[in-house]
Amino acid sequence: MSDAQKGFPLPSSVKVVPGTEEAQAAYPYYTQFQPGDDERFWFYNSMHFPEPMHHFDMITAEAAYCALGSFNTRVHVLPTTKGIDHRVINGRVFIGGVPVTDPAEIEARTAEFQQRAFYYYEHWEKLYDQWKDKMKALIADAQALPTPHLPDLEPIETTHTGKGVAANHELIDTYRKTLEGYFRMWHHHFEFLLLGYGAYLTFFDFCKKAFPEISDQAISRMVAGMEAEIFKPDEEVKRLARRAVELGVDQHFTDDMDIDKVLADLDAVGNSGKEWLGELETSRNPWFNVNVGDGFYHYHRSWNDDLSMPFAALPGYIEKIKAGENIERPMDRLVEEREQLVADYRELLDTDEDRATYDQLIELAHRVFPYVEGHKFYCEHWYTNLFFNKIREFGALLVEHGFFAREEDVFHLTHYELESAIVDLMLSWSSGSAPIGPQRWPAIVEQRKAAIATWAEHTVPPALGHVPDVIDDPAIVMLWGITRENLDSWLSDGTSDPNELKGFAACSGVVEGTARVIKSVAEISRIQQGDILVCQVTNPTWSPLFQKISAAVSDIGGSMSHMAIVAREYGLPAVVGTGSATLKIKDGARIRVDGGKGTVSILDNEPVLEDA
């Protein structure tokens, strides 16, 4: 009990930052901590929500956990775990799993799981092809939604065709279809995901029992070297870099370039420039429909909305191409290493039965694993970008009618409040009187804007409540890296070497260098060549930056987190799930990353002075 006694704070002990009480109370009631929550274990989901949440952006947690829980609990019926509950305090999202502990219930759920999940495993390729068709249709539906607007008078055609519906009805219809599509997208997102983790975790558990000395990293390397759509955007940037060199327009791309000027100059230089711009358009649709973040915040814009991320990578790629360096992912090496590892460990098995089980499990893991990353392009990126841009259109309409000053202000309203503001506008348009919203919303928006800024200055504990004896939710273990061992490490904070951090060994290699502590997407531009990236979490769309950094360290994440997967695919030394690297390592400090052992050593925590 000693760990529990000294352990994490109880939810009831975490106080709302003074002056932000009204902003906290505005989050939906079902996201507020409840009296019974002190009896449960919660952890801060800094992987998906590393920054304080705008009130509208909480829909990204709500829709996701509605879908995740549905598939865990009632569709695929995972035997030992149900869904995830979420709470928000001071803008930070905490989540808690719902374990199944009754042996009789586990047995009953196992029987259901075998009927349901095994059907998916048996028909994976066919069902995944259907899934892509569903997602592309959903994206097309979102793209076809009309831009919300209110004319002064209805067009005469409304009368002469007997349409029988006025423009203000289309506002609420479009808004509700926008939300419906977003919630539906998250159901598609989780249709396969937990089965992908489950297949890998089953293989992982088999290897741990069969080969007691095997490392987590060795097992994960057995599924490396995969093709997935989420890597395609970075491949397109590399393609554009090669075309720039081939067409002789590479001199336009420099570290301090003005992107608009570059585009204008290329358009003016003749056929070679115009040809490269044509190549850019080919890449942009659809591959630049990726966000600079992980798709959970409205301000993590897509590459198509802001070209600075892909363009920032072009000079580095161009320089390496001209120097004759290979800029591709080391696919051949990864596949060769993967096949060799699979064969070597197979030879260690003693029985035909074990070898048959091993063959079956690794074959399944290879079949399902590309989905674990591939779905992100369609869901968190392409679709979510469409969704937030549609909400911006409603923001622009409300700005036009005086509800607030900027279209981005719309994201300070919850999705319920936005619907009420739309109805307010519908009523005023229909009656010809002034809407109420312009008197109500500006002060609330300013208050919530201030709260977000205040919350950003406060740190939160990594977890709350009672530490569970066992954690066997495949997503919590494989994605977030929350294990009992990790929690014990977090709880022992201060009793071990303060200059040594332990995490998951994501990708081997030892690197010493300057730490660049990045706490938000907005700070990415500070990364210099050779820096070691230290962040709460990263995602595959940061891949173009991996040519600059020499290693990576994260606060949160397990062996199957996106950062761990991407690091392995690019051969970048990495340690994930350290718990507190962004708090303990100063920006500019000198550190050593050992991606094989899963350790980060602070060699000199005083920032290295940079040349002016």
From TrEMBL:
Domain PEP-utilising enzyme mobile, residue spans: 527-598
Superkingdom to which the source organism belongs: Bacteria
InterPro entries: PEP-util_enz_mobile_dom, PEP_Utilizing_Enz, Phosphohistidine_dom_sf
GO molecular function: transferase activity, transferring phosphorus-containing groups
Pfam family, one: PEP-utilizers
Stored Gene3D superfamilies: Phosphohistidine domain
Signal peptide: none
NCBIfam families referenced in this protein's UniProt entry, alphabetically: PRK08296.1-3 (NF006151), PRK08296.1-5 (NF006153)
Entry-linked PANTHER family: PHOSPHOENOLPYRUVATE SYNTHASE-RELATED (PTHR43615), PPDK_N DOMAIN-CONTAINING PROTEIN (PTHR43615:SF1)
Protein name from the UniProt record: PEP-utilizing protein mobile subunit
